[in-house]
Amino acid sequence: MRYRELGRTGLTVSEIGYGAWGLGQGAWVGADDESGVRALRRAVELGVNFIDTARAYDRSERVVGRALSELPGHGDDVHVATKVGPKVPVSLASSGLHPAEVFPGSHLRESLETSLRELGRDHVDLLQLHTWEDDWTGRGDWLETVDALKQEGKIRFFGISVKDHQPENVLAVLRTGVLDVVQVIYNIFEQAPCDALLPACEEHGVGVIGRVALDEGALTGSIRAGVSFPEGDWRNWYFRDDRPAQVEERVEALLADLGIGVAELASTALRFALAGQAVATVIVGMRSLANVERNAAVSDAPPLTAEELALLAKHRWPKNFYG
Q1: In terms of DSSP H, where are the helices of the chain?
Q2: What is the rounded distance in angstroms from the CA atom of residue 82 to the CA atom of residue 241?
Q3: Which pLDDT value is given to residue 323?
Q4: Which of 24, 221, 247, 297 is most deeply packed, by most CB within 10 A?
Q5: Which one-letter DSSP state was computed for residue 13?
Q6: What is the pLDDT of residue 217?
């Protein structure tokens, strides 16, 4: 496992991080506490030292907390990030809401205290807002609360998880200097962060967490026309109608251009995300031991060549299946 600096935070994080949404047993069907703990512990054994979870991920924080408690030293050398969700629903479109309605300081504090209880920790390394609109910059009392929580030692650093497929919807607040970290969707299909966000993060010393590097499974080659998922699994919505066929067509073209087989696709996708300017870690959902071992091994693989990156740049696909 290789490690990188997370912006100006001073934290050194594993290139492959652990995305813990799938451990929550809500949106992703098939997980349970025992398998989640095993997968997370195996990831740490293989050098993963960064875990990303959230209040909104059902049982995820509790599973993460249990897994860490069973590690030597209670996992104190593992960096944990969580997120506080909005107090009221926020759409992907501009909501017109005031930040005092969405992220009042009292809500941030209450959410964090709940997260700390679930995680069994007295602090988190990173607290993130789970959505953001740049119109909120300089408004509300959320920043005063963030500063207070830092002073109290309950959080070390602060960041924002950017709205799906809206990487430029954080540039105004980023340029104020209040962010330590930004989390953003970044993968072979979703390359928009390269346009403005990643260069801005590098300029301002803001660490970048890449999420959805495998595009919810699309960049593993497992999504093809006719694919099905367990009842209640959110992917039935995400990959609805003719979307699997669209993915299959795009993936087949990608494999043909690269001259690789489908077994090499996930590794290629993760290495693409790690080639991104200022990206420190890529968080990956890993519920099985096999996937943990496969994904952790990517950090030991050679980086993609300039020629491969130039080819992959041509496969940019401005889709938004979340809409």
Answers
A1: 33-45, 60-69, 99-102, 105-119, 142-151, 171-174, 197-204, 235-238, 243-258, 265-274, 289-296, 306-313
A2: 33
A3: 78
A4: 247
A5: E
A6: 96
What is the structure's pLDDT at 31?
A: 85
Cα dist from 106 to 84, 116, 158, whole Å: 12, 15, 16
Nearest-5° Cα angle at 305, 171 to 3: 60
Tokens representing 7?
Answer: 């912006």
What is the CB neighbour count within 10 angstroms for residue 125?
21
| Pairwise CA distance, residues 284 & 19, whole Å | 5
Alpha helices in 9-92 (DSSP H): 33-45, 60-69
For the record, the structure tokens of 196 come out as 């403005």
| pTM of the predicted model as reported, rounded to 2 decimal places | 0.97
SS3 138: coil
Could you tell me the CA-to-CA distances from 245 to 121, 218, 273, 322 in Å, in that order? 44, 11, 24, 17
| Low-confidence spans in the chain with pLDDT less than 50 | none
Helices H, strands E: what count in the chain? 12, 10
Q: What is the C-alpha to C-alpha distance for residues 68 and 47, in angstroms, rounded to an integer?
A: 14
